[in-house]
């Protein structure tokens, strides 16, 4: 599950541990300046926009649990579940491509629906 | 990416190729009778309920493209993107646990929101 022989997985897990530990500065050290992220709401380009995506999520994060993690030389997948102030279970998958020790591309998959429903109930 | 030394990945990919080829009978041969699937809408138990979840999706499937796939002895993850008659890009991740050559547990992650929006626009 956590094959430390995968350079991409090492980076993906270091990133994951940093942001789920609510240390976004440390997490961003593993993200390339010109990162491209295909997220549910659309494509995000550049580290600043990526950080702006993550920041509100990290602020409402209560806990995260890794479900599975695999990788090879260039690519890694981390599947995890999150508990936030908004939604009790929000599973997600991040499938990343790593170049020069940083995440250059990420495909980020999660269900936006429970978050949207929780927000519309709250408002 | 497609490490054929992983028994779980072999099953996950055979299942994936069958259902994305719209052969649900063949796909279900890789799914345990007592399968448990944690899907976005909640837990599904048993092969009949699982098939009922997949059937309408397979019916509207136009194409599927594998993004990444990894596995080990027991667990595998397949990340893919789908084009359906409803949504042009619906990426998903299936993280499965395989026992006795069949999928015993699946955590199925995708964004329901574009499907819901497309349905409410259509109706």
From TrEMBL, chains A, B:
Protein name: Nuclear transport factor 2 family protein
SUPFAM superfamilies: NTF2-like (SSF54427)
One Pfam family, short name: SnoaL_2
Domain SnoaL-like, first and last residues per copy: 14-104
Signal peptide: none
Domain of life of the organism encoding this protein: Bacteria
């Amino acid at each position: 599950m956590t094959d430390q022989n995968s350079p991409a997985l090492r980076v993906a897990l270091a990133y994951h541990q940093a942001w789920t530990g609510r240390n976004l500065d440390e997490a961003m050290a593993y993200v390339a300046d010109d990162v491209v992220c295909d997220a549910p709401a659309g494509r995000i380009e550049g580290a600043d926009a990526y950080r702006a995506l993550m920041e509100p999520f990290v602020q409402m994060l209560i806990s995260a649990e890794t479900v599975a993690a695999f990788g090879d030389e260039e690519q890694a997948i981390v599947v995890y579940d999150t508990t936030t102030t908004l939604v009790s279970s929000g599973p997600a998958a991040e499938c990343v491509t790593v170049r020069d020790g940083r995440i250059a591309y990420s495909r980020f998959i999660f269900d936006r629906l429970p978050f949207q429903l929780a927000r519309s109930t709250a408002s």
